Amino acid sequence: MLQKTKTMLLISTGILSMSMSSPSHAWGQNGHRIVGEVAANHITDTTRQALTPLLDGESLPQIATWADEMRSAPETFWQKKSSRWHYINFDEGDAKPKYDKHAHHNKDSVTDILEGIEYSITVLKNDNASIAEKQFALRFLVHLVGDSHQPFHAGRGEDRGGNNISVTFFGQNTNLHSLWDTKLIENENLSYSEFAQFIDTKNEELIADYLSSSPSDWLIESHNIAKSIYKENETNISYSYIYKNVPVIKTRLQQGGIRLAGLLNSLFDKSAKPLVKALKMPTDSKL
């Protein structure tokens, strides 16, 4: 079983590492918690009950940041291999992300976020997997669904997902990745629960549209958004940029939460009907 004490001891160092330029941190803490909170509002009672032993007293928003916090852990996996789970690079001209269907059988062979999502799903489906293995998979899955909706986690490898692109935010120096994962969200001056409440939806038509998709689709969406932002090439960020792009961020966070709920319901509630009230992803959804 994952130890809460170990996680808590790593939080302070995890927060420090999250402030560093790295292509593996998306949405910051609040963004990931927003996705988790929206998802928590849309899972079924059956799914909630099935998640109880895996959450071990925590909630979806609480575990949403675990995969970043654990990057300070000394084990080889966290220091050498975990970072590549969080993003995928598109080569010029790629219409969709490349996917190695064999990589998800072993967590050490995962090379990108798409394979990480599939590994996590495979473990959660495996009746023979241990509680510890399923806790690991759930915590990563919650995080990676959030990551897949951050545009610069499907950006360009040459600039490390916008980390190497310098911008100013109301005169303060930052980079494009940090602007999108943290600063534009924090500028709203809302707690994660307030933010989630404001963007959540009960629109069944919209929810059904969100759920008619796969993780590969989510990354293509993110990549296309990133391409449009690269093309605009704005470096002095202020009110007009916020007006234009914060609605995009809100939509991506909303989509991430709804899709996470649909995915969890498809894994844990066999009675849930696909595309009905955010209950389930389509049964034939493919990566």
Automatic annotation (TrEMBL):
Xref: InterPro entries: PLipase_C/P1_nuclease_dom_sf (IPR008947), S1/P1nuclease (IPR003154)
Keywords from the named record: Disulfide bond, Endonuclease, Glycoprotein, Hydrolase, Metal-binding, Nuclease, Signal
Signal peptide (from-to): 1-26
Superkingdom of source: Bacteria
PANTHER family: ENDONUCLEASE 4 (PTHR33146:SF26)
Protein name stated in the entry: S1/P1 Nuclease
Biological source species: Pseudoalteromonas lipolytica
Organism ancestry: Bacteria, Pseudomonadati, Pseudomonadota, Gammaproteobacteria, Alteromonadales
